[in-house]
Sequence to fold (111 residues):
Amino acid sequence: MPAQPQYDAVFMAAVSEEKTDLAVQVKESKATISVLGIASDADDTVDAVHKLAADITKALHVDPTRGGLALDTRVVGIVYDMSEEVAPLGACNLEVEVIYRHRLGDPYTAV
Fold:
């Protein structure tokens, strides 16, 4: 039986959110999100993981305003894990910050 093809995987999880009062009825928030990417390539795991991290970064920057609700989206750090114990798998963990402002009590109204 031939080996099953391996596909890249991406998982996202909210890590934290900081809120600041800017003015009466206006909040600024910074959401920190962890994006974990897992890639498999028996020939070149390092290249596959770096390409996946670049693809995730590119996708996040297609709309840094998240549909007009955010001020900005930034990748603030990337950690790579390509240890021999899990080869040919490798991972990248991107720390992403989303900055947005909204009216108090209405996070769907960008300010």
Summary: The chain is about 15% helix and 55% strand. The mean pLDDT is 89. Residues 9-110 form a domain with the Alpha-Beta Plaits fold (CATH 3.30.70).
